[in-house]
Design a protein that fits this description.
Elements: H1 16-27, E1 41-45, H2 49-61, E2 65-69, H3 75-81, E3 86-90, H4 98-107, E4 115-120, H5 124-134, E5 138-141, H6 145-160
Helix pairs in contact: 2-6, 4-5
Length: about 190
């Protein structure tokens, strides 16, 4: 049996209090931000179990509530039932490609506030063009999942908050896409 004992300040080594505080803060670094009062639900759709698990792990670590589907079939019902805020979906799937599903979701008036982030291992320029075509709020290369997925989801939520029609996104970097014919300068590709 392990006995816990409160250390008295008389027996603490110099600097130990500081080390305990640092250890306490580090042990809670995984906690989601207190600014996120409402849990944001993200639906991850990918037929590859390993990729799906990787996306889930990144998003859970960032403080999101994650629902997973191995196939896009039934996605609309899950989105409505589970009050999903953002869908992160793979482009290449056997039943229906992610870009076609994204277009269907974007065209559904009942889902106008739904954020859409496309995820793929294809060339980033090709992914960007697909994202623009279907009106995605963001794009993420599978090679950059660990650093780009959570910020792309946060930007998708922010861009869709309180909006009733799909607006163009204006996020910087390679993790966003726009549905407008004149994308922001950060999204324009050189001709």
């Amino acid at each position: 049996m392990v006995t816990m004992r409160r250390a008295s300040s008389n027996h603490r080594a110099p600097g130990q209090a500081c080390h305990l505080l640092v250890a306490w803060r580090a042990s809670r670094a995984w906690l989601p931000s207190l600014e996120r009062a409402v849990m944001i639900r993200v639906l991850v759709i990918d037929d590859d179990e390993i990729a799906r698990e990787a996306m889930r792990a990144v998003l859970v670590r960032a403080g999101f509530d994650v629902v997973e589907l191995a196939t896009p079939i039934g996605a609309t019902a899950v989105i409505k039932r589970d009050k999903i805020s953002v869908v992160a979906l793979d482009i290449n799937m056997p039943t229906i490609n992610g870009d076609k599903l994204a277009k269907l979701l974007r065209d559904n008036a009942q889902l106008s506030n739904l954020g859409i982030v496309l995820v793929s291992s294809c060339d980033i320029d090709k992914l960007s063009a697909i994202g623009e075509k279907v009106g995605a709020d963001g794009i993420v290369s599978k090679a950059k999942l660990h650093v780009a997925l959570a910020p792309a989801v946060e930007r998708a939520v922010a861009s869709r908050a309180g909006k009733t029609s799909p607006p163009p996104s204006s996020s910087a970097g390679s993790s966003a896409a726009s549905s407008s014919s004149n994308p922001p300068p950060s999204m324009r590709r050189p001709k």
